[in-house]
Amino acid sequence: TTEENGDKITDINFELTNFDDLIVKEDNQEKIDVNPIYFEFDKADITPQAAEELDKVIYVMNQFSDVKIKIESHADCRGNAKYNRGLTDRRAKSTQKYILDVGKIDSSRIESAVGYGEDRPKIVCETCSLCTEEQHSENRRSDFIIIEK
């Protein structure tokens, strides 16, 4: 930077971020590491808690401009399967809109935002009624899958 020991360069602001610290590898996929995103019952509105987690997705996408993702939202097995598919799809689209609008992320960097309802559970129970509340909670999730980096 300079040839003099002890000289300082001021007014430079930067941070180093390790990509691997921001992702989790699961089922042969890389996903942005976020806490579960919770929605109010029967709603797709972004809550303050959801916004906090989505801000982590925005951070990754802003720090690593080559990252492209797809959004997948899932429900537990309770309720009507067709209804759950529609609800999770609205939630996936809501999270996509938040990331694009708040993060000013180019729409080409989100390949898709799809709700799968209860069709892809993380935890499969013998019957829905045998799932614990914790298992239901794990099945209600949104994944931000990295498709390009």
UniProtKB/TrEMBL annotation:
It is found in: Cell outer membrane. It comes from Sinomicrobium weinanense. It comes from the Bacteria. Keywords: Cell outer membrane, Membrane. This is OmpA family protein. Residues 26-149 form the OmpA-like domain. GO terms for cellular component: cell outer membrane.
